């Protein structure tokens, strides 16, 4: 079994909708409501930050874990992600470790997926070959001063211009109430079973592309007509599952994305772009209609 036990997967609730549907059949997820209250936490959060997922994370504000100097900036950036429909971004911030009673510099990779923000959390220094930084096509945001001393800069600049790496000091106030946010564009987040071959699904955040009843334990490849597209998706899944232990696979910097045609009753024969990342519990795939 490949070792990525420092990675946690989270769903950040972005719209005022019923959370129960988002956590069904998704044991790999943490769900955070607009006020950042955690509804579910993956077991790997215990390895990462020392907190028991059920007893100490569920029902707690995510911002309780954020360094006090960075809470306002974190809230503001959360709003901007939803407002601008961001995808594949990377945010560096400090999160509190229970056992050490100190703060750990973490990397939060996230994408807006219509009714949620999907994300992974990992230690910032756990990035062999600069893979995670290279996947941040949507830009990198730094909430912690002095980050360049913690993460080697050469890998950061391989695929992203320096202008996309932005230091975000704490704003004086939270800019806009979350209730005034616009509805994001059509996207869906799919969790794939990390430990099965092919692309068996565990959960979908909405039914815009994959119809209800066709997700849990169904193979996503059955909805992809072209063999070349199926092979491309499987290759992308393989790469993101192995980046943490085989850093040479990330040298070209093109991992984590895939384009293919999907055919479902609600979304017939249309081209989509996929953004992929792997955690200790699942493979995360965000599908975005291709322009």
From TrEMBL:
Source organism of the structure: Serendipita indica (strain DSM 11827) (Root endophyte fungus)
SMART domains assigned: PAS
InterPro entries listed in its UniProt record: PAS (IPR000014), PAS-like_dom_sf (IPR035965), PAS_fold_3 (IPR013655)
Protein name in the entry: PAS domain-containing protein
Domain PAS: 17-83
